[in-house]
Recover the amino acids of this structure.
């Protein structure tokens, strides 16, 4: 057990070590300063911009940034729909997998464009290699989009008055070439070296010792799994995701993947500190996020190591903890840690089946996505957190007797309106989605959606909408979700919960950037203090977490109190 | 209008008046302005319908007693919130009424074609000219166009010492309701009937045209947003409950909702705003809008006049330095004599200092045969020619030096050194000579007000920069600025310098306040974010500023800043308190909703409340009562301490955040215990 916990601490420590220099590097890239990668990528980027006719030097206003972002996302959506609905007859389909139904293609395209990767299919049977490659492309660009949005936010938060906030294409392309691509190449090589397949050949056939023949799916797995984690996408090449031995062959690859999915979210926070030259702010943010993360991780790891009382009741000993749904090569502690890491950041890849987690772990996984503000996905994590900063600044600013201001810019009615719409959208989508599904299940108990009745069934529904709204993409599974209701309803949730939380913070930051900069004084509320950090945490807990208290009571909490 | 009369929060007649208005304010049209309380009103109406349905035989919603109790409690919640607003308004009105008494119809002696006609003050039009003599009450605001008079302004300022008002210059404006004590003046009316300064002020205090301030609007949006979140939480609970086979009564839904939305701050919000303006009025500052009070809390820079604010009145003599070989008592006597004709404050202070040093005119000294020489700009000296041919002169060192050297005498080097020493200390040296021979130097110094340094320290801790404005030369200005603890100064200031300084600060994003009284201050007053005009100032100054200080006290700016900060802090503190309360309310109501059908959830009932009904009732009772308990805090405001923003945040988070977390746990448990005793 101690070795397992040491493994968790090692993973966190390694991530932190890697994230610090990466953050400094990202800040330099966004600021347009010289970096080591200039010589390699600058000509490539120039060529790209010349070919496409884009003027990457032109500064954009926040409105132009958003327009650009939405336009390119729409183009990708259209292209992906075409590929997925026609992959059956298109090339690179050695296993002869069928084309997707329109509703599934809609859900899948949206899901990958918004960096969520909610998968209502299994890669083995649901996608051709062309389909996989298309989705892999989206895994790159969706992460790049999120980070570009964060770069705009950083730019807008600087100490000056301006509406010129950099060029979106420039940020976006640099994210892909200078950050995501090099990291993914390193990671893919590590996976390849550990035994992940990388091939375009179809299923292999092996004969087991018993003499049965087994068809084994394979494909360009190493490359896919690399960007899946680096870009906090989480969509597995195979249905079993990172529990599959080809996606994560060993405890070592488990560590590598864990570090890979958390490193950019960490680094973005540090990059913000470097970029704004306010390291204390990034430590405050990182501190709040880490406290939240630890508060979610501890009960999870503890309850997974503790094992299930139901199994204990059958007098079966559980020396390693609750093993149902877990891989022996990872164990319950690493699985518990992963389940929280993957839900606080919006990866949503799994190395164990969350449906089989203990009730407390299930509650914590859902809370991680319901708060949706600790670390968070590539770039968007900071954007989500920014909304809570705005809310805390408003209340905290009043408490020190000044009309609220954030980094020298006054926060007024317009900004509050936008912040609240964004803060509202998350509980609205989760609770309204769950309510609609619960109503249908109540009206027609024969619906074949749930593997489990009662509280656990409710958790499965709640988890699915939570995962969609947090743009997470992990599934509680045990939910029959490949049908029009789930494909379309979660698809709509995905769109709203991706774009509004990007548009909102960028709009607020853009509005604030165009306001007059007020220099700090003794009377100004400083946001880089532990007191203010505590204030943000309190706002997150009371507003975001407690809104879900009644729902969680009917799901995992009721299950917990019935079980223990 | 003494301050002590305002310290009691709940006077009987005010409470009665407020009670009446609490009911009148239930009107949904009025209620709509406050989204939080409006939703409570809708909930109350629904509960009334539920009670009606039970009376007509509906049995799905539980007992009539329980439902009616919930209805009653919600109704009380509304009344309490309305009462808070009404009592704040009533207090404002009471103050306004006492002001208005001063302007009950006064007869006005209007000049029509050089004839005096008696009319009622309410008929006076802008531009009319009236006459006031000793004993008359001035009927309305105006400007003296002829004459000079002493006026008792105690009706407005509470200050009993009469003031002098005269035509022309900066002291020409008179305020309606004040009384002429001596002489006669001709006054031109400057305000339309009903629009005089006092009228505007009364209307403002009464809240007749009170507009929501930008910050209040933003906070209302925040509270409305929270309300929406909790609407979502409560509405979606219905299908969740259906799925889990857990029926939830309407009363429970509405109770959960009302408890979760920020009713505490929602109910007290407008009371806080009105009370802020009341507090300003109690400090004898009339604000033209609530916005100005709010802005005051944000001020970054204060422009303060040196004279009267930082220093006591004018410069005073502080030392006599006799020249070498001159006897001190002889020198001081010369100084005394030279100042007899000098009725400037400086001259008077020389006489005073001499008297305190025990030097007086020799007995039998005859002033009748002396010739007093007045100060002129040309000679820059004054003095006296005595009957014994002694010519004593006192003046600036260079003018005396010229006189002395012209007469062929020596200007002693020691005296020169003394003159320089005094100048570099921020003082003004006056050299005294007798028959063109130097006797010594008088040192004049500014006397810095006692305690002013501490007040500036306090301002610095608030993050407010203080700037001293003075006509002195830069050297003197620097010395006094350093001694008084102000951070910056404008020396040899002309009115346009003030304006330029304000503009420069504002271009750096700072909010600037200044105080002024003269017409030439008007542009700067208008430019400043908070311009405080003195009531003794000209009409132009008063119209340019957005506040008027009735006491004419230049240090009032400091109080105004604190009132502004208090106003914002009270809003923030009660918002925090309100939101923190939700934790306990969740733990009271959520288990109560489900315990009946999912008994395992009993363990979530961490407060061990006796039954689901009593848990819900306790939470709703707490929610209503806490509004009532917090009314005094809303009216008085949260105490401001200049300890720096971070420390202040920590302090308020501890009191109102942690307090808001803990108090409802204790309160709800206690109410539950009481309920179970009575049940």
């Amino acid at each position: 057990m101690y070795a397992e916990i040491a493994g968790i601490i090692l993973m966190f420590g390694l991530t932190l070590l890697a994230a610090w220099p990466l953050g400094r590097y990202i800040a330099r890239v966004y600021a347009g300063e010289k970096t080591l990668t200039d010589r390699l990528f600058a000509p490539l980027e120039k060529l790209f911009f010349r070919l496409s006719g884009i003027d990457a030097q032109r500064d954009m206003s926040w409105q132009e940034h958003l327009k650009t972002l939405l336009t390119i996302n729409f183009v990708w959506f259209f292209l992906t729909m075409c590929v997925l609905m026609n992959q059956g007859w298109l090339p690179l389909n050695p296993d002869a997998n069928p084309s997707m139904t329109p509703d599934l293609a809609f859900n899948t395209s949206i899901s990958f464009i918004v960096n969520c990767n909610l998968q209502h299919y299994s890669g083995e049977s649901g996608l051709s290699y062309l389909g996989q490659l298309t989705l892999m492309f989206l895994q790159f660009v969706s992460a790049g989009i999120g980070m570009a949005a964060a770069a705009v936010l950083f730019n807008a938060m600087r100490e000056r008055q301006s509406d010129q906030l950099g060029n979106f294409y420039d940020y976006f392309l640099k994210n892909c070439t200078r950050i995501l691509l090099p990291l993914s190449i390193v990671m893919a090589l590590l996976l390849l070296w550990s035994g992940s397949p990388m091939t375009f050949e179809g299923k292999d056939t092996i004969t087991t010792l018993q003499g049965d023949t087994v068809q084994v799916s394979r494909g360009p797995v190493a490359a896919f799994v690399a960007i899946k984690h680096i870009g906090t996408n989480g969509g597995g090449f195979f249905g079993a995701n990172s529990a599959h031995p080809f996606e994560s062959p060993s405890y070592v690859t488990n560590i590598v993947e864990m570090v890979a999915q958390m490193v950019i979210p960490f680094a973005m926070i540090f990059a913000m500190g470097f970029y704004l030259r306010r390291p204390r702010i990034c430590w405050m943010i990182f501190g709040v996020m880490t406290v939240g993360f630890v508060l979610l991780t501890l009960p999870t790891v503890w309850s997974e190591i503790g094992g299930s009382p139901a199994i204990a009741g059958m007098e079966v000993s559980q020396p390693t903890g609750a093993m149902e749904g877990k891989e022996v090569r990872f164990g319950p502690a690493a699985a518990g840690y992963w389940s929280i890491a993957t839900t606080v950041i919006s990866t949503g890849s799994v190395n164990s089946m969350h449906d089989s987690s203990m009730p407390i772990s299930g509650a914590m996984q859902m809370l991680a996505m319901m708060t949706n503000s600790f670390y968070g996905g590539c770039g968007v994590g900071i954007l989500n957190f920014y909304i809570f900063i705005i809310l805390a600044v408003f209340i905290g600013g009043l408490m020190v007797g000044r009309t609220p201001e954030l980094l020298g810019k006054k926060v007024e009615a317009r900004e509050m309106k936008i912040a609240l719409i964004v803060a509202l959208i998350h509980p609205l989508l989760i609770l309204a989605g769950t309510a609609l599904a619960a109503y249908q299940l109540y009206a027609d108990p024969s619906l074949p959606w749930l593997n489990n009745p009662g509280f656990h069934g409710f958790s499965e529904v709640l988890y699915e909408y939570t995962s969609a709204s947090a743009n997470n993409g992990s599934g509680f599974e045990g939910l029959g979700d490949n049908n029009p209701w789930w494909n379309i309803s979660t698809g709509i949730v995905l769109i709203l919960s991706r774009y509004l939380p990007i548009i909102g913070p960028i709009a607020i930051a853009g509005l604030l950037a165009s306001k007059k900069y007020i220099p700090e004084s003794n009377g100004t509320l400083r946001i880089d203090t532990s007191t203010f950090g505590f204030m943000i945490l309190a706002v997150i807990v009371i507003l975001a977490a407690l809104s879900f208290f009644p729902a969680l009571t009917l799901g995992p909490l009721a299950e917990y109190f019935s079980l223990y | 209008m003494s301050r002590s009369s305002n310290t009691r929060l709940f006077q009987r007649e005010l409470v009665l008046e407020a009670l009446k208005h609490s009911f009148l304010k239930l009107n949904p049209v009025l209620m709509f302005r406050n989204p939080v309380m409006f939703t409570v009103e809708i909930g109350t109406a629904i509960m009334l319908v539920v009670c009606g349905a039970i009376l007509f035989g509906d049995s799905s919603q539980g007992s009539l007693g329980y439902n009616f109790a919930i209805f009653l409690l919600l109704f009380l919640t509304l009344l309490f919130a309305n009462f808070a607003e009404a009592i704040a308004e009533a207090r404002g009105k009471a103050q306004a009424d006492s002001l208005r008494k001063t302007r009950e119809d006064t007869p006005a002696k209007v000049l029509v074609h050089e004839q005096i006609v008696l009319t009622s003050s309410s008929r006076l039009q802008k531009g009319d000219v009236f006459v006031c003599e000793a004993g008359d009450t001035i009927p309305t605001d105006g400007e003296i166009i002829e004459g000079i008079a002493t006026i008792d302004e105690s009706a407005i300022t509470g200050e009993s010492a009469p003031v002098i008002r005269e035509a022309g210059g900066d002291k020409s404006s008179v305020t309606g309701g004040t009384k002429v004590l001596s002489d006669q003046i001709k006054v031109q009316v400057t305000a339309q009937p009903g629009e005089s300064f006092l009228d505007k002020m009364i209307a403002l205090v009464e809240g007749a045209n009170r507009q929501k301030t930008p910050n209040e609007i933003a906070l209302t949006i925040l509270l409305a947003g929270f309300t929406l979140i909790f609407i979502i939480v409560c509405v979606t609970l219905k299908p969740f409950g259906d799925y889990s086979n857990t029926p939830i009564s309407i009363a429970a839904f509405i109770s959960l909702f009302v408890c979760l939305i920020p009713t505490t701050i929602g109910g007290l919000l407008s009371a806080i705003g009105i009370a802020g303006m009341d507090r300003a009025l109690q400090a004898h500052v009339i604000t033209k809008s609530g916005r100005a009070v709010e802005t005051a809390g944000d001020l970054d820079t204060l422009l303060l006049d040196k004279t009267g604010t930082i220093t006591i009145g004018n410069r005073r003599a502080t030392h006599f330095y006799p020249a070498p070989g001159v006897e001190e008592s002889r020198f001081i006597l010369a100084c005394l004599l030279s100042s007899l004709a000098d009725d400037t404050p400086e001259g008077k202070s020389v006489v005073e200092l001499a008297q305190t040093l025990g030097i007086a005119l020799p007995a039998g000294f005859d002033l009748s045969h002396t010739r007093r020489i007045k100060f002129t700009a040309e000679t820059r000296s004054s003095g006296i020619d005595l009957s014994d041919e002694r010519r004593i002169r006192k003046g600036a060192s260079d003018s005396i030096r010229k006189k002395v050297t012209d007469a062929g005498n020596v200007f002693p080097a020691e005296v020169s050194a003394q003159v320089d020493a005094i100048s570099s200390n921020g003082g003004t040296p006056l050299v005294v000579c007798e028959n063109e021979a130097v006797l010594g130097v008088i040192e004049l110094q500014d006397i810095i007000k006692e305690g002013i340094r501490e007040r500036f320290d306090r301002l610095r801790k608030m993050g407010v920069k203080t700037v001293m404005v003075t006509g002195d030369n830069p050297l003197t200005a620097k010395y006094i600025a350093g001694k008084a603890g102000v951070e910056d100064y404008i020396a040899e200031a002309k009115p346009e310098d003030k304006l330029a300084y304000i503009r420069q600060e504002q271009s750096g994003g700072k909010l600037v306040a200044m105080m002024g009284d003269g017409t030439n201050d008007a542009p700067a007053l208008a430019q400043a974010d908070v311009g405080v005009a003195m009531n003794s100032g000209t009409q132009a100054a008063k119209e340019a500023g957005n506040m008027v200080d009735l006491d004419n006290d230049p240090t009032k700016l400091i109080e105004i800043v604190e009132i502004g900060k208090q106003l914002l802090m009270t809003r923030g503190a009660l918002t925090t308190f309100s939101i923190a309360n939700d934790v306990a309310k969740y733990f009271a109501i959520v288990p109560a909703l489900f315990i009946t059908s999912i008994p395992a959830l009993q363990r979530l009932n961490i407060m061990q409340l006796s039954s689901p009904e009593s848990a819900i009732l306790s939470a709703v009772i707490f929610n209503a009562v806490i509004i009532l308990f917090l009314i005094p805090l809303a009216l008085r405001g949260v105490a401001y301490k200049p300890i720096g923003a971070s420390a202040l945040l920590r302090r308020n988070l501890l009191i109102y955040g942690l307090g808001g977390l803990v108090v409802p746990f204790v309160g709800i448990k206690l109410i539950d215990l009481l309920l179970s005793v009575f049940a």
